[in-house]
Amino acid sequence: MKNPEIVKADKLGLCFGVRRAIKLLKEAASKYGEIDTLGPVAHNRVLVETLADLGVKPIAHLDQARGGILAITTHGAGPTVLSEIKARHIRIIDTTCPIVRKAQNAAKELAEAGFDVVIFGDAEHSEVKGLLGWTGEKGIAVLDVKQLYESGRSPSRLGVVSQTTQIQSAFIEFAAQLIRMLGPKTEEIRLVNTLCKVTQGQQEAALELAGKSQLMIVIGGSSSANARHLVEICSPFVETHLVETADEVKTSWLVGKDHVGVTAGASTPDEAVEELIAKLRSL
Ligand code: SF4
Question: What are the Cα distances from residue 115, in Å, to 103, 150, 199?
Fold first, then answer.
């Protein structure tokens, strides 16, 4: 049997936002010792475990803070959470990704200008919770226009932003539906493109590779929004599997496959990608 050709997507893996956060956290850990992070640094178990070995550990709630230093993750946080941390005299290390910060500023400015703010995103995701926080009482997070309709809101001025890692075509479709449904009733709809270009580039590269492959393997955290979106993008075209580590690859997936594509979520460490490639070559 001929070994399959294993090809990596042109753009994949750790983004600059997560790399920056890792650097800041490593520096802080070597200076202060133990650091808490409010939630996992990024949605990747391998990365969280690597940082935990250096003393950087996630907590779910402020009451669990072990010491006087707390890191805000790349996903950012809302102003109420930041005030609560300051009120507890806990020192903050802010690793909010600059792209998420831009989205927060857009949401805040829209709310301050009197717009109701719709966030195209998963209301349970930590980035979206933070974005909602910056809109005060004026924000709602939805993934479907129907949810907005069912909420009973009928804003006259509507601002629209997106969770940074959403799929571009899905955001465009959402905005088009919103305009069709609410446009005639509203005075103004203002849309700000807050999508992350790094994520968009990785999604486009994954789609291109999926078109040339018989199997796609996405390596990333099962709770990582951008890794799941990579699966969503590739799976209509080719058999696609999401794995968190190379050990999860099943030999049966490769049977009869000559071209295998690999891509990785934005919080997947480089070593995890290399381990996956090595594993695929060894099978
Ligand atoms: S995926 Fe984009 S928005 Fe998210 S941390 Fe990376 S660079 Fe920032």
Answer: 15, 19, 27
